[in-house]
Amino acid sequence: MKITAIYLGFLLLILSFSACNLREDRVREDSLYIIHAGSLSVPIKEIAAAFVEENPGVRIYTEAWGSKAGARRVADLDTRADVFMSADYMVIENMLIPDHASWLIPFATNDLSIVFTANSRLSNEIDAENWMDILLRDDISYGRSNPDMDPCGVRTVFTLQLAEKKYGRTGFAAKLLSKDRENIRPKETDLIALLESGHLDYIFLYRSVAVQHGLKYLELPDSLNLGDFSLNPWYANAVIETLGTAPGETITEYGEAMIYGLTIPHKTENPSLANRFVSFVLHPEKGQKIMGELGQGPVEHFDNPYKDILPDLSLHD
């Protein structure tokens, strides 16, 4: 009897482990983990819902970060990541390729705006001619994201440098960047609550996010908003040094028109489903249509250096 009991117990233990493994395999097969830029929170929510509707039973889990912080999660931590979507394709180039990813694909554009509410001080006066002076005022508070963690923070610095050069305002960028430093946040969407609560008067934010949240915004000229590909030679006048992936490492970044990028990291646990999701995002009548409705157009001019090694995504199936 004792031998029989031991045998049955051992058999139950094996069956239990087998059942756990089957459940884990099923979870891995049916689930997708996406790390994405904070500015993509609304589009990803809608794209994920549409993808699940087309693929019943799939579960999608998302994490919103400043793109650089998200890339560090992919590179440094034991964090599952089946798809990584960045507000700047160069984050993938500089921080993930070749050790953590093999390729990237551009999938959306954007431009930078100065965002505010009806309760922001001087909101009825700010315009394309006086915004520099208004933001410098001691009685005005503004916020921006951290350039070491978030591309929007980098692009804010670029815009201020370009404004200084365009209008001949020597020292403007350094002066404004040294102001209100307590209002710097890890990612640009962290600033929205501070703006809506009245803690901040103005924030630098992507125009698409302002539209999605029903916020007022000042449109900057193309020479400053980083949204015009034909102005890349001009944008390149702006430059910043930011932290890299490894401790003590820095990256020199130059201004260019905004291009969002995505990749499937090497660590993906579900490459097949990740491929299907990326295909959905890039499909002109699916993900790209949703992106367009939310204020972000497609990338039309991009010579992808990884075009020869991209996975077969069957974009038009």
Give me the number of helical elements: 13
User: What's the CATH H-level superfamily name of the largest domain?
Assistant: Periplasmic binding protein-like II
Strand content: 15-25%
- Tell me the CATH architecture of the largest domain: 3-Layer(aba) Sandwich
The structural domain count equals 2
Strand order of the largest sheet: 2-1-3-12-4
Sheet with most strands? 5 strands, mixed
**Poorly predicted ranges (pLDDT <50, ≥5 residues)?**
1-27
By CATH reckoning, the class of the largest domain would read Alpha Beta
Summarize the helix and strand pattern as letters. Answer: HEHEHEHEEHEHHEHEHEHHEEEHH
Q: What is the gyration radius calculated from CA atoms?
A: 23 Å
Provide a quick synopsis of the model.
This protein is of the alpha/beta class and 317 residues long.
Topology (elements, then pairings):
Elements: H1 2-30, E1 31-37, H2 41-54, E2 59-65, H3 67-76, E3 83-86, H4 89-95, E4 105-108, E5 112-116, H5 131-136, E6 142-145, H6 151-167, H7 172-177, E7 184-185, H8 191-196, E8 202-206, H9 207-212, E9 216-219, H10 222-225, H11 232-235, E10 239-243, E11 250-254, E12 260-263, H12 271-282, H13 287-293
Parallel strand pairs: 1-2, 1-3, 6-7, 6-8
Antiparallel strand pairs: 3-12, 4-12, 5-8, 5-9, 10-11
Architecture overview:
This protein is of the alpha/beta class and 317 residues long. The chain has 2 domains: 30-109 and 259-309, Periplasmic binding protein-like II (D-Maltodextrin-Binding Protein, domain 2, 3-Layer(aba) Sandwich), CATH 3.40.190; 112-250, Periplasmic binding protein-like II (D-Maltodextrin-Binding Protein, domain 2, 3-Layer(aba) Sandwich). 40% of the residues lie in helices and 18% in strands. It has 13 helices and 12 strands. The protein has helices at 2-30, 41-54, 67-76, 89-95, 131-136, 151-167, 172-177, 191-196, 207-212, 222-225, 232-235, 271-282, 287-293, and strands spanning 31-37, 59-65, 83-86, 105-108, 112-116, 142-145, 184-185, 202-206, 216-219, 239-243, 250-254, 260-263. The strands form 3 sheets. Strands 2-1-3-12-4 form a 5-stranded mixed sheet, sandwiched between helices. The chain has a 5-stranded mixed sheet with strand order 7-6-8-5-9. β10 (239-243) and β11 form a beta hairpin. The longest helix has 29 residues, at 2-30. The termini are far apart. 42% of the residues are buried. Residues 1-27 have low confidence and may be disordered.
